[in-house]
Structures are given as structure tokens and as C-alpha cells.
Amino acid sequence: MSQYSNQVLIDHRGKDPATKFKPVVMPLVSLAAILFWVYVPMFFQYLSYLELPLLVTVYFSLMKHNQIMGTLSGAVIGLVQDALAISQYPLGMYGITKTLVGYFASSLSLRFDVDNHMLRFVVALFFYLFHSLMYWVLTSALLGQSGGFAFPEVLLAAVLNAATAVPLFAILDKLKQRA
Q1: pLDDT tier at 13, thresholds 50, 70, 90
Q2: What CATH architecture does domain 21-173 belong to?
């Protein structure tokens, strides 16, 4: 294997790789991200592209290295986001998509070193695209809403969210509990 791949691939055998946080960190950060998503675009329209609840879901799922915790955190964040969202869609659309994101991000963290900034950028980019595509599929299939998938706009928003994710993840890394 090359030197780079040895840095990205990790081996968790015999260790507990999960990152520890104080018990109030996950709920407070998640709530702050959801409230940002709901209220800030009302005053600053140009920040409406930021999907902070998704980025927080991805971060905590990556750090916990546990598929059950990733799935549960995604479901809770998504359902709270659904409850606070002012939309015509029924409760559960964000819950379903964030549950899938949480599960897959946790699964990814079991195989790769998620402290790599480039990998974090790529993961955030991928999961934004995945989240948008899943939301569109659910809206089309379950609700019968017709509408095109605006790929150029989604791709631009994915790049902007991924660029936001790298410094956001660095800030959230400072909230880790010291061993």
C-alpha cells in the first residue's frame, strides 16, 4: 500500500475508536444547528444553502464509529428538523434521509480515518449530494410531487457545505472530551 493509503485506512481491532463528548454537547450542538437552519435564513437569505443539521449528523456519526448511534442521531436530528420545518411535506422526510446519512457515515468511519481534512471535505460533499437525492426520491416516490432535480444548484450547494464542514468539524473537534 502507498503511504497515503496507510494514513487513511485504519484498523480498529482491539481498541475503542469512539470519540467521547460531554453528555450535553451532542444535544446542544444539534439543537443549535437546527435553530440556525430554521431562523438564520429568515434574516440572511444568502445562508439558506447551509444544511448545518446534516453536517452535524455527519460529524457525530463519523466520530462515534457506531452504526446504531449514527442511525439514532440522524433520526432524532431529522425528526426535530421536520417538526420545526415550515413546509408542506409531512413529518418524517428529513428524518428518513438523515437516518440513512447517519448510518452510512458511521459505517464509513469504521473503515477510514476521519480526522483527515480532505476526506472530511469529500465525505461532506458526498453526503450532501446523497441527502439531496434521497430527499428528492422520497418526495417524488412517496408524496407524488413532481419536480426536477436541479443538479447544478445542488452541486454548488454541496461544495459550499463541504467547504463549511471542514472548519466546522475542526471547531467541533475542540469539544471532544479529554481522556
Answers
A1: very low
A2: Orthogonal Bundle (1.10)
